[in-house]
């Protein structure tokens, strides 16, 4: 049978077998990744042998890994990569070196020769980039503290593929790698990475600009696939991992204005090939060998998971991460990586690992991959249980009573959980308007930076009762949760509401689907990023069509007050559409604050003559807290007055421009200044 037809039959078998198993996994609320791996075990060469061309399937699986890492890179930026340099270099480097050393020492104590012991350390040091990132994406935890730490360590592990592959012939004692040869290859690899970054920042955007002008979606998609696969192929030619090349291309292109369109176009291809990758992993498991050697395989599996978790936890704690975050990172990276299979095959060729050891390693590795989604899901509970074992973590976390003990207790203040972009911006505004606030952050570097600039910031985990109590949640008026950790957000909201039912809790979340649960836990207002973007878009569109600011603000307030119901509904009833249209055309009132710079200061209502010039009318004024109505034409406007204007939207808009000095007089003054 022709090779093409064999591959087509294998693909049909893959898809046909994966659908029911994936459907059952979803119905049982289990990760779909596990369903794909079980599919591979069932139909693979060690199962029902329904797939004939395994090598071709593995090649398609590599495309899935490339596209996954490419899209992951698009979610990052070079700025974020620079910010993560400590996690990548110190975290990843420490984890890889310490894992290799510990495994090598342990295996040597069991009688394994030193070169083979070190090689086994190579295999265990790497984790599964594809499975971990896919699981974090599905759980919306890629931007959470443990997600960022895990990604940083995984990036360094991928960078280690080249030196580890070069070390294999040296460990085997065979020819092929000298110190000079290794230095040349390492220098070449660095040059390739630098060249990729340069090309992706200069040549690729130039080509994108010309291709976009063609207005051809097909050409755009072809070029995107070419960039992702081409960079992966290029890096592989110089000994680097293909996934690393794709990730670098994605990171650089993330700064392009086309990044969102690239993600949307590449997503269907990524999902299809990704499923093939996870199925191909399952095909490697020999059920017969596992059945005949269950004890040794499970012993190796347990040792790998526990050992790697402890190493990552230790390194994470050295980097200043809290115990809870460190445990979640350690449990998430406890599996063996797919690139370890490449190393293992090279080790078989070099005589560093025998047949039974190779099968035992494969079995334990695949089982660790299958367990990864369950381990990541259980990681928060494991972290909290360990924290309770250590008395809430107080004995191993920074002592709360030592942090800020000399500061006065705040009352009626704002508590900001998280010092990212949203937390920083809120802190700046609160500082400018003299509203008392304090910030709680888990990133020790961010805490030190904030303290250097005078920000009242403290280190601590908002999921701990004593931490919230220390920063005065019982006396606070508002608590703002601005972190990218869904689990920590939910727990913090529930705990804060329990400690102070009167505190107003405002939560930033990425997805609207989380809003209902957060409101049940005690959040007073949930701000979903995906819908706030929609609000900003329609506000600007209405402004372009001349709709009054007060009408836009009223509609925005109504949408938020009703929990974004208009956006969540697939369509609007006709009656509601008519009501919205009527609201745009109806007469309304608008309060206008008179600043000291306003051209209206010192003038009377007769001097302004708003009714004649704009059609709007001043119906009332608030001065020094007192409201005056039935104003006469001789009412003289003073600074800090609040005028209540009645009229249609366009009339109010013209009146506001005139009062603020942006009417005809303001335009005349601006024109004179421009001439000068």
Structure report:
The protein is α/β, with parallel strands linked by helices and 676 residues long. It folds into four domains: 3-389, Na+/H+ antiporter like fold, CATH 1.20.1530.20; 415-523, 3-Layer(aba) Sandwich (Rossmann fold); 526-586, no CATH class; 587-676, Regulator of K+ conductance, C-terminal domain (Alpha-Beta Plaits, 2-Layer Sandwich). The chain is built from 31 helices and ten strands. The strands form two sheets. The chain has a six-stranded parallel sheet, sandwiched between helices. Helix 2 (32-43) crosses helix 13 (259-283), helix 7 (129-138) packs antiparallel against helix 8 and helix 15 (294-318) packs antiparallel against helix 16. It is elongated, with a radius of gyration of 31 Å. The termini are far apart.
Strand segment count: 10
Task: Report the uncertain regions.
Answer: 398-406, 570-577, 662-676
Oligomerization state: single chain
Mean pLDDT: 80
Helix residue percentage: 55-70%
Q: How much strand content do the residues show?
A: 5-15%
Structural class, from helix and strand content? alpha/beta
- Determine the CATH topology of the largest domain: Na+/H+ antiporter like fold
Number of domains: 4
Radius of gyration: 31 Å
Q: Largest sheet, if any?
A: 6 strands, parallel
CATH level 1 class label of the largest domain: Mainly Alpha
Distance between the first and last residues' Cα: 85 Å
Looking at the structure, what is the overall shape?
Answer: elongated
Total helix count?
Answer: 31
Please supply descriptive tags for the structure shown above.
alpha/beta, Na+/H+ antiporter like fold, 66% helix, Rossmann fold, 4 domains, disordered C terminus
